[in-house]
Design brief:
With 119 residues, this protein is mostly helical. The chain is built from six helices and no strands. The N and C termini lie far apart (47 Å).
Length: 119
């Protein structure tokens, strides 16, 4: 199987941390590794870069639709930006993905996050 180049957004940025650089380097070798893409998404979340965080959570989900915590974290970022409707949709998708995978713990955590928005 031919390797895909890493997404354009993996290029150097002014705010790149050493951890981001390390993950980017690893992604050059394994661009479809969902754990690495998720790790980079989490770094963007920590760096308060919601657009790039969401982009990388989406890429994680694209690579591995059963990666339940990518939905959870994406929903958290969407909440933080005030996009509550998008967060609800993401949480619902994550609950479905977790249940399909048989991950009751993840489904429960995502359901709890969703319930805080529906009260």
């Amino acid at each position: 199987m031919e390797k895909e180049p890493p997404p354009q957004s993996l290029s150097n940025s002014a705010a790149e941390t050493p951890r981001m650089a390390q993950l980017r380097h690893l992604l050059e070798k394994s661009p479809r590794d969902p754990f690495l893409v998720y790790g980079l998404a989490m770094e963007f979340k920590k760096a308060a870069d919601p657009a790039r965080a969401i982009e990388h959570f989406d890429r994680t989900i694209e690579i591995d639709p059963a990666y339940a915590y990518a939905y959870y974290q994406k929903g958290q970022v969407q909440e933080s930006t005030g996009d509550i409707d998008a967060a609800k949709r993401t949480y619902r998708d994550g609950i479905e993905a977790a249940k399909k995978k048989g991950d009751a713990h993840a489904a429960g955590e995502i359901e709890a996050a969703l319930s805080t928005l529906e009260d």
